[in-house]
């Protein structure tokens, strides 16, 4: 039986944030987020097992594509800043995603690019302005040790 006294940790809802190295005016803290905050989805495999005649051979990938969904509060100026950025230049450069707990490390994304803005409702019941940022998340760093 597992130890029932193992600490479950703490989640800090206001820790979740995004920092853009080349665009600090777009840095996002909890005050700019709806309750849905930030979601990340990994796309593609970090590694694959290639079939052989007698088994499989591992083949690590050097990166994964990552999609970051940022649920901004539409009634704040930050939403307009992102709308302006989409209309001007979607390339953002490096981004750093901070999770809602200190035990899970941060995620650094290369070539962060504004992918799209989500559906927007003007019915006064949904505060979100959903922004999707796409980029490259480096994995398998040991493969570069040649």
Main sheet: strand order: 1-6-7-8-5-2
- Report how far the terminal alpha carbons are from each other: 43 Å
* Share in helix: under 10%
Low-confidence residue ranges: none
Sheet-strand content, in percent, reads over 45%
Name the shape in a single word. globular
SSE-based structural type: mainly beta
- Please compute the radius of gyration using only Cα atoms: 19 Å
Largest sheet: 6 strands, antiparallel
Give the SSE string. EEEEEHEEE
Number of helices: 1
Quantity of strands, as a count: 8
Mean pLDDT across all residues, rounded?
A: 94
List the helices and strands and how they pair.
Blueprint (H helix, E strand, L loop, with lengths): L16 E4 L12 E11 L3 E5 L4 E5 L2 E11 L3 H12 L2 E8 L8 E11 L10 E11 L8
Antiparallel strand pairs: 1-6, 2-5, 3-4, 5-8, 6-7, 7-8
Could you characterize the architecture of this molecule?
The structure is a single chain. The protein is mostly beta strands. Helices cover 8% and strands 45% of the residues. The strands form 2 sheets. The protein has a 6-stranded antiparallel β-sheet. Strands 3-4 form a two-stranded antiparallel ribbon. A hairpin with a 4-residue loop joins strand 3 and strand 4. The longest helix has 12 residues. It is globular and about 60 Å long. The termini are far apart.
Summarize the structure.
This protein is mainly β and 146 residues long.
């Amino acid at each position: 039986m597992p130890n029932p006294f193992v600490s479950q940790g703490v989640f800090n809802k206001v820790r979740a944030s995004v920092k853009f190295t080349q665009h600090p005016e777009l840095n996002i803290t909890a005050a700019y987020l709806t309750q849905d905050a930030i979601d990340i989805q990994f796309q593609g495999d970090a590694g694959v097992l290639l079939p052989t005649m007698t088994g499989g051979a591992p083949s690590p990938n050097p990166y994964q594509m990552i999609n970051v969904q940022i649920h901004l509060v539409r009634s704040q100026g930050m939403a307009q800043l992102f709308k302006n950025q989409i209309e001007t230049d979607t390339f953002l450069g490096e981004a750093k995603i901070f999770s809602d707990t200190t035990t899970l490390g941060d995620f650094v994304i290369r070539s962060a690019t504004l992918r799209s803005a989500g559906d927007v409702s003007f019915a006064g019941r949904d505060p979100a302005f959903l922004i999707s940022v796409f980029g490259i998340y480096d994995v398998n760093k040991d493969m570069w040790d040649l």
